[in-house]
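hey so u asked for the seq, here:
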Amino acid sequence: MQKKKILVTGANGQLGKELRDLAPGFHDAEFLFLSREDLPIHHFDLVRNVFDSFRPDYCINAAAYTAVDKAESEQELAQLINAEAVGVLAAVAASHDCRFIHVSTDYVYDGSKEGAHKETDQTAPVSVYGKTKLEGEQLGMQLDPQIIIIRTSWVYSNYGNNFVKTMMRLMQTREEISVVDDQWGSPTWANDLASCLLKIIQHKECHPGIYNFSNEGDITWYQFALEIKDRISSSCRIHPIPTSGYPTPAKRPANSLMDKKKIVETFGIQLSDWKQSLAECIKRIGHSGS
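ran it, structure tokens below
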């Protein structure tokens, strides 16, 4: 049987590295991992050349400009990577009969809704990051009607910079810290997200559209921090504060909770409890010495 060919962009990010870790267990596939340096995804001709030579059956776009606050002052760069480049990938994927899977964000919602957001809910991003990610979704759907878009939230990993690793470092070096307690959401371990994407590829049928994905659990950043503290047995005192007590250049959605029924029912994805995934990730961080 011929192996599926899977192209992964953003190979050096959290998700890209988790996909790389899982790839050896995916025996019926040949992977090509490309970083931003290997392939500037906003260059149409370069992207087309890669597709012409590798001829992927699937393309997972794990590349993104994710510096949420910096995006407020680097709007052009965020727009280039999060929007224009998605359009390039979508157009080239469609012309090569390649299934395109694009990773998006909970930041496309404004966070004013009570309860979990459904994929069909009105989008109204409140930051440059959110706006550019939404534009990427729209360009992707316009240029490739077969696109699969996965909206995810609060992503962390033993790779890169993220909330979990930052909290662990602060809790080991400070006596007390303050963490926002009025923004709600669900964490996502990048390893679980990577597994989800590969299961979608393995699924016997393609179901284009937008899907929400995260781990299970409704918590605040403060509650997230408390669990991290317990897991590493830190004596650091953590104080809950309102968003107004921690001003940032970019506004955050107050509610990032997402309804995940659609992805579960369509692709048979099993969602992990956030505490279990956090425990496994912290174990890996400890082993790696990161």
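The chain has a mean pLDDT of 96. The longest helix spans residues 75-95.
lmk if thats what u needed
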